[in-house]
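User: Some background: our group keeps a shared notebook of sequences we're curious about, and every so often someone picks one and asks for a predicted structure to add to the entry. Today it's my turn. The entry only has the sequence so far, pasted here. Could you supply the structure so I can complete it?
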Amino acid sequence: MQGKELVERLLSSESKGELLMLFHNNPGLMDSLDGVARRIGRNGAQIEGDVKDFLEMGLLKKGKAGSMTVISMDSEKDAQIQASVTSYLEGVKK
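Assistant: Of course. Here's the predicted structure to add to the notebook entry:
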């Protein structure tokens, strides 16, 4: 996936921007879909599609905490995505 497509996909909705800010401000955060949604003032159904998209991109990952399914940020994939976006934006500035 190239830089422009990444930027468009990362910011294609308001809740995606909120999710990015939440996980970047709380890099160790692990919570259920509903828990993450509450943290950004939404419900699970409202962010389910955006979380699914981030899971497909590899930015977020699913795990288990006891019997509960939790989501968290994949810091390695996040760093790769940030590098791609930065490279794209630097090229746009020139």
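Suggested note for the entry: Residues 26 and 73 are 9 Å apart (CA to CA). The chain has one domain: 3-93.
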